[in-house]
């Protein structure tokens, strides 16, 4: 297993939302861009010491959308955001 894949696996296993982690761990090639985006968001959150929650991931992805200029990259970030939001339960 390559070092990059091992790093991504480690990051996804750090997620509290196991359904979201499994979705991305089993995503395959059709979501490779989204896997990379989520892995990057998780690394940023972990480096800042913030709590690794879906809320923090959503905020990180929104920030990435705000600073990204390339339309194709925005599409991948937006799709990643939609997936994370889809796995996020509403506050009760």
Please give a structural write-up:
By secondary structure, the protein is an all-alpha fold. It has a single domain, classed as Single alpha-helices involved in coiled-coils or other helix-helix interfaces (Up-down Bundle), CATH 1.20.5. Helices cover 73% and strands 0% of the residues. It is built from 5 helices and no strands. α3 packs across α4, α3 packs across α5 and α4 runs antiparallel to α5. The longest helix has 17 residues. The mean pLDDT is 87.
Derived structural class: mainly alpha
Give the amount of beta strand, in percent.
under 5%
Order of helices and strands: HHHHH
The count of β-strands is 0
CATH class: Mainly Alpha
Fraction of residues in helices?
over 70%
What assembly state would you assign to the polypeptide chains in this entry? single chain
Q: What summary fits the major beta sheet?
A: none
Shape: globular
Protein name: Two-component-system connector protein AriR
InterPro entries: AriR (IPR024753)
Pfam families: YmgB
Question: What is the topological layout?
Answer:
Layout: H1 3-13, H2 18-25, H3 32-48, H4 54-67, H5 71-87
Helix pairs in contact: 1-2, 3-4, 3-5, 4-5
Give the tags.
92 residues, mainly alpha, Single alpha-helices involved in coiled-coils or other helix-helix interfaces, AriR
Summarize the structure.
The chain is built from 5 helices and no strands. It has helices at about 5-15, 20-25, 30-50, 55-65, 70-85.
């Amino acid at each position: 297993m390559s070092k990059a894949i091992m790093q991504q696996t480690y990051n996804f296993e750090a997620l509290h939302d196991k359904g979201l982690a499994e979705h991305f761990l089993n995503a395959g090639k059709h979501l490779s861009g989204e896997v990379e985006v989520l892995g990057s968001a998780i690394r940023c959150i972990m480096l800042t010491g913030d709590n690794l929650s879906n809320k923090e991931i959503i905020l990180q992805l929104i920030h990435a959308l705000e600073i990204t200029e390339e339309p194709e990259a925005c599409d991948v970030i937006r799709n990643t955001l939609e997936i994370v939001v889809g796995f996020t339960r509403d506050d009760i």
